[in-house]
Amino acid sequence: MKKWLNYLPTLFIIIILASLLLFSTQGSVRRLNYTDFQKVAQQADFKESSLSISTTIIKAEGTYELNGKKQSYSVIIPNTEENMVWLTDVLEEDGGSISITDPSTGNLWMTILGQIVPLLLIGFLFYFLLSKMSGGGSANKAFEFSKSKARMESDVKVRFKDVAGCEEEKDEVKEIIDYLKTPQKFTQMGAHIPKGLLMVGPPGTGKTLLAKAVAGEANVPFFSISGSDFVEMFVGTGASRVRDMFKTAQKNAPCILFIDEIDAVGRQRGAGMGGGNDEREQTLNQLLVEMDGMGDNTGIVVIAATNRPDVLDPALRRSGRFDRNITVSLPDVKGREEILKVHARNKPLAPTISLENLAKRTPGFSGADLANVLNEGAILAVRNKQSKITQEDLDEAIDRVMMGPAKKSKKYSEKDKWLVSYHEAGHAVIGLMLDDAKIVQKVTIIPRGDAGGYNLMTPKEDRYFHRKSELLAEITGLLGGRTAEEIVFGEISAGAINDIEQLTSIAKNMVRVYGMSSLGPIQYADPSGNVFLGRDYNKGSDYSAGVATEIDKEVRSIVDSCHDQCKQILTEQRALLDLIASQLYEHETLTNEEITNLKNFGQLTDPNISEEQLNDQNEMPPLPMPNQDVPAPTVDNEPPVQNPTVDHETMDEALNELTKK
Known about the structure:
five-stranded mixed beta sheet; 25 helices
């Protein structure tokens, strides 16, 4: 039936062409009125004619010959005795023949078809449109709102080798694969395989990919559906779809049933104002009932994914439904390297590229982010008409993923360019001088996104716990740009708005969440925030007004102490600040190696390394943390030399003149 519907448009075209052909053949017949027929009858010789006589009219059809040309005709004349005699004489004159036909014969079927065929065509047209609106197939699907929208993949190609950076998570699901392959081992031991697995983790960490790999390794069907696919505007649709989904899964057992973004339908019940969404709660109730109704070792494993486990209903997470929680975290440096290797399989990389170094430069990146970095690098290589992806392409790709494309057409005024240069140089100097600060990987004053410039800083190693000294160093580093403006120009700009937002959040968390203040190890705020307005609408504050004042004092004390430390470092390292700012003003972008050379040698290159050795370097050297000060050149963009000196009076006069402008 489905294949026949595909030919319905062709059938309509054939009918239209046949109708046009019929009208074209009828167009060769000359239709005469009574007066014209009388004039033709005086000159023409009629051959064969047929008369269809009814009570009121006589319809004559046939052929005649006039001036040597043969012509078909059709005429209708009134049915009178005089007209009948005259017409018979005219048509039989000169040897013409007449045949009489019954007007009721042959017209009945044409009349019936003329009335029924249009109705049938209209009916088929609506039938075809409704079937297409329902996604093809049977027209009944147009009304099957309660059917499950789960999509089935019977032959999943994803395997564990395609999933990198989550080795522990793979170990957690290996017995699921063993059960789906050989369930007898578990039933003989009396073990019950978990009915449900809840995968929790940030977006882009590979939860869906891992679930697909489980189905691919076990070679079982993979049903996938999103939590938002259950709820519709029609009451009861979600619950009905849940029932149909589990019914379909039972027919295809053993199988994997994957529910993505389950928090869309599994949010805690009764948490919203006014009782919540009844339709969503009915869907959740049906999901709970279906998972309870699943027998042990029935061959169906439900895997759900979410990045908001805190909003899920407790009844959904209890044992017997989702028995096991698997946290899929952001990959560490080793995991990032493995992920990069997976996504670099089909990409031609230059020999100088080190995926290990690239992994070290991308802390906090998810698997999706790393795939995007390599993809952006490949696009840039194509844009530059290169045969291989170079390190410059990947550097630009990291910047694009983090901040967006560079706005090279945006030009600074001279004063603004110096302001941005000193701002970014302030961040870089703090990163160099504090042991607990992050490593400066790249500094640029080229605008990207909403930022006039930015400082790419990464931790020395992956951090799993935040120490107080590290948080204080991060706040100090964020204050570096604003403090540098204050020291050099005697005023501050609005360019530090994002820095202030971040450091304020860190300071508040230190006091209210982490207990890193004189108020002691007491938590004064919910770190996850108020998820449900209805549940927390009438809830009082967790602390008194007096404690709120003490919290504000502690936050201010932390920021002030970090600001004082930042100001002291930048004042003591003014020469290094001027040196980095002047080089930024001239070159606009400095790398980790160049900043290190400025710190150690006062110039962008290492004088102890030859040009050939410099070109052969494939890895960035480790960032040293020296204790001695290095003087900087003046602001007039003279070429830097080893251990340069600076005339601070000249520097201050030049900056004062620039500020006055």
